[in-house]
Design brief:
The chain contains seven helices and no strands.
């Protein structure tokens, strides 16, 4: 997990424990259930994870609208992976209408936090950093 990016806290420890205990053993439903209360409390990493669970349909029925909702929350709360994922949703039209200006905005936000894929995407899309 991206422990170097996330500040140490009990929520991060809980997310890492859930990944170790349930994700690696493919018990996605339990992993989802463990992350959901943390996401509901506004912990950005958990919000991003919940968005991913909904996007992929892991441990929960696939739902692009809910994936977008949780990913948007994570992005708004400053999570760089959430920002990158949200940009991708806008670029591809996952759970939302395609909006390249919003995609560029969120790619840039993630890139400004040293998200490697976002930096590459900004170069590809000629977004000034």
């Amino acid at each position: 997990m991206a422990s170097n990016y996330y500040k140490p806290c009990k929520e991060l420890e809980m997310c890492e424990e859930l990944i170790e205990k349930y994700w690696k053993s493919k018990q996605y439903d339990k992993c989802f259930e463990g992350h959901l209360p943390l996401a509901e409390q506004g912990y950005p990493l958990a919000e991003c994870q919940i968005g991913y669970f909904y996007f992929e349909g892991l441990g929960i029925e696939k739902d692009l609208e809910k994936a977008f909702y949780w990913t948007h929350r994570a992005a708004e709360h400053g999570d760089r992976d959430g920002q990158f994922n949200l940009a991708w949703f806008y670029e591809e039209g996952y759970g939302v209408n395609i909006d390249l200006e919003k995609a560029k905005y969120w790619y840039k936000k993630a890139a400004m936090q040293n998200h490697d894929l976002a930096i590459n995407k900004c170069k590809e899309m000629n977004i000034n950093l």
